[in-house]
């Protein structure tokens, strides 16, 4: 398989390249380009079996590439901005990796591509419909269990969700903790994006749970939550910091 990586952050591009080679040494990364213009120029003269495409590039959004050159290869989009999910799938997207992602996420995306190719051609409209179904269902409440008691927690009572080992905890504003049978990744797309934000691999927080914020090095942000999680430092990851600041300022 030949791959083109379209990514304007050099470290992120090299990290992805190393992940791909580690997953399958036969994968050949033909080139790494960092702008819409460079990607268009490359695609006018070359072809790859698969494109990894960051949405935000130095000279614009990568969706502009599709307006300037025909893209016949499947695309795996990567970005810290999850509001672009649906648009990504409308542009040849077979998967969507939300930064920060790891090797297992990349492996899963490659497996998905392989399965699609084995069973049928890539059906972009069907993928769009599937994403629309996911995004169209915003969660308003959550079922939780307390012993044999079953109850619901309204979304506006949630302070944050915290992943810890194999469990995902729902923590309410009045300091109640519940284990919910979800994954943080699947839950993320079902929440009200105006009020909830995933700051790192462990936390999705509600805007009203933020008590104080402090600037750290490398553009990161330390957050004091209310209620305060025990023995856990809550920090917005470097990869999500810019998106987080835009979310605060919307």
Task: Provide an overview of this structure.
- The protein is α/β, with parallel strands linked by helices and 250 residues long.
- The protein folds into two domains: 2-136, Rossmann fold (3-Layer(aba) Sandwich); 141-249, OB fold (Dihydrolipoamide Acetyltransferase, E2P) (Beta Barrel).
- It is built from eight helices and 17 strands.
- It has helices spanning 10-23, 36-45, 63-68, 85-90, 103-119, 124-135, 184-188, 241-248; strands at 2-6, 28-33, 50-54, 56-57, 60-61, 75-79, 93-98, 141-146, 149-154, 158-164, 167-172, 177-180, 196-198, 203-206, 210-215, 221-225, 235-236.
- The strands form five sheets. It has a five-stranded parallel β-sheet with strand order 2-1-3-6-7, with helices on both faces. Strands 12-11-10-14-13 form a five-stranded antiparallel β-sheet, with no helix packed on it. It has a three-stranded antiparallel β-sheet with strand order 15-16-17, with no helix packed on it.
- A hairpin with a 5-residue loop joins β15 and β16 (221-225).
- It is elongated and about 60 Å long.
- The termini are far apart.
- The mean pLDDT is 84.
- Keywords: DNA-binding, Phosphoprotein.
- Residues 2-114 form the Response regulatory domain.
- Residues 142-250 form the HTH LytTR-type domain.
């Amino acid at each position: 398989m030949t791959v083109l990586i379209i990514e304007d952050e050099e470290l992120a591009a090299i990290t992805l390249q190393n992940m791909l080679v580690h997953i399958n040494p036969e994968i050949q990364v033909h080139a790494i380009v960092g702008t819409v213009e460079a990607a268009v120029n490359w695609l006018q003269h070359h072809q790859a079996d698969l494109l990894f495409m960051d949405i935000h590039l130095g000279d614009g959004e990568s969706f502009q590439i599709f307006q300037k050159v025909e893209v016949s290869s499947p695309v795996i989009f990567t970005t810290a901005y999850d509001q672009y999910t649906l648009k990504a799938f409308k542009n040849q997207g077979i998967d969507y990796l939300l930064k920060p992602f790891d090797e297992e996420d990349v492996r899963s995306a490659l497996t998905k591509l392989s399965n699609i190719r084995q069973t049928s051609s890539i059906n972009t409209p069907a993928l769009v419909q599937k994403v629309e179904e996911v995004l169209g269902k915003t969660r308003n409440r959550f079922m939780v269990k307390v012993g044999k008691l079953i109850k619901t927690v309204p979304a506006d009572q949630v302070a944050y969700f915290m992943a810890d080992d194999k469990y995902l905890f729902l923590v309410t504003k009045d300091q109640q903790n519940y284990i919910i049978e979800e994954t943080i990744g699947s839950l993320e797309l079902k929440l009200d994006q105006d009020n909830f934000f995933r700051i790192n691999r462990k936390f999705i927080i509600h805007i009203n749970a933020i008590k104080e914020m402090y600037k750290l090095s490398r553009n990161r942000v330390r957050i004091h939550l209310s209620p305060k999680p025990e023995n856990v430092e809550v920090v917005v990851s470097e990869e999500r910091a810019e998106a987080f600041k835009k979310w605060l300022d919307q």
